[in-house]
Design brief:
The protein has 339 residues and is of the alpha/beta class. It has 13 helices and twelve strands. Strand 7 and strand 8 form a beta hairpin. The longest helix has 22 residues. It holds the Pfam family Peripla_BP_2.
Length: 339
């Protein structure tokens, strides 16, 4: 295996590898569950721990920004459309069809990558949420956590995107995000409903595939002629929850410290996975990936027999209910007879 993928693929892909430079992330947790939020938009102080930072909100946020499509989706499904003042990285993955009209009037702060510090602060948010700490990298020209704090803007990083969780993150980290954001944003009832729906879907998948033999899977990302594999992180857990046995794992040296690595085609062919799962950011990228796999692996059974499962790149970001969609899509690809 060769070196890690570089950032240009990430900004365009909104895919599994799109968080490769989230090296400055933090931890997760929830504190003080008894805090109460009023219906009037003011609140008793709500305090929670996120990425080893203690965050206190003196009032319910009224001007919120989602820094990726997955976070914007979550905010919309929490019923907060009238409080969202910006959405970001919109070109990296489309929102689910049922939300597109609702999101149409929300200002777009950036398309390919996170918004610059100036653009984000010009939107005058009081709360921003992101999948990883990369979105707060000052060296990239983005607003840092410290700069946001100085501007009285609270920030939340998805639990699975924190540094100590990024390599071992699981789908269940979503429930930490729902609990925390529900309290912080005064949307506890909606958050509980979303969590219940997500748990029911995961339970149904588990029951459908119970007793089925594990299917060997390689999860890959293709950008041009660069092939990368996923071997750790929430992406790894998504495949596991779907009944897949990833042919790459944290036990491999290439994934000991990082969840993705650029690989040679020969390495993938040697592992001979029964199914190939690949993340995409739009229909054009999906077709380009299919063309690459067909051209590069004509003798691989997974390719010859059409066992190719695409998932939306935003659905494998930490902190999105798309994680559940990804588990469902992969499970159906692995065990079509069970669905």
């Amino acid at each position: 295996m060769s070196h890690r993928p570089h950032r240009p693929a990430l900004a365009r892909g909104a895919a599994a590898i799109a968080t490769l430079l989230a090296l400055a992330a933090c931890g997760s947790g929830v504190t003080d569950p008894a805090d109460e939020v009023s219906d009037e938009g003011s609140a008793a102080a709500v305090t929670f721990t996120n990425c080893e930072r203690e965050v206190t909100l003196d009032a319910t946020p009224q001007a919120i920004v989602g820094l990726s499509p997955g976070q914007t989706e979550l905010l919309l499904r929490l019923g907060l459309a009238d409080r969202i003042v910006g959405q970001a990285q919109t070109a990296t993955a489309p929102l689910p069809e049922d939300l597109r009209d609702e999101a149409a009037g929300i200002p777009v702060l950036s398309e390919e990558g996170p918004p610059s510090r100036e653009v984000l602060l010009d939107a005058a948010p009081d709360f921003v949420t992101a999948p990883t700490a990369y979105e707060f990298t000052a060296e990239q020209g983005f607003a840092s956590l410290d700069q946001l704090q100085q501007a009285d803007v609270a920030a939340y990083i998805a639990a699975g995107g924190c540094a100590e969780r990024r390599m071992t993150a699981t789908v269940d980290d979503l429930f930490t995000d729902l609990e925390t954001l529900g309290r912080a944003l005064g949307a506890e009832e909606q958050a509980t409903e979303l969590a219940d729906e997500a748990r029911a879907t995961l339970d149904d998948i588990e029951q459908r595939i119970e007793g089925q033999p594990a299917v060997s899977v390689a999860q890959v990302y293709v950008e041009g002629d660069r092939l990368s594999a996923i071997g750790a992180g929430i992406e790894y857990d998504i495949v596991r929850r779907a009944g897949g046995q990833n042919v790459f794992s944290p036990e491999d040296a290439a994934f000991a410290d990082f969840f993705a690595a650029q690989i040679n085609p020969e390495e993938l062919a040697a592992r001979d996975p029964r199914v190939l799962v690949f993340s995409v950011h739009d229909a054009e990228h999906e077709q380009a990936t299919r063309d690459y796999l067909t051209r590069t692996f004509p003798d691989l059974d997974a390719v010859r027999e059409g066992r190719l499962v695409p998932v939306s790149g935003s659905d494998v970001f930490p902190g999105t209910i798309g994680n559940v969609r990804a588990v469902s899509a992969i499970a159906e690809g692995l065990y079509p007879e069970a669905f």
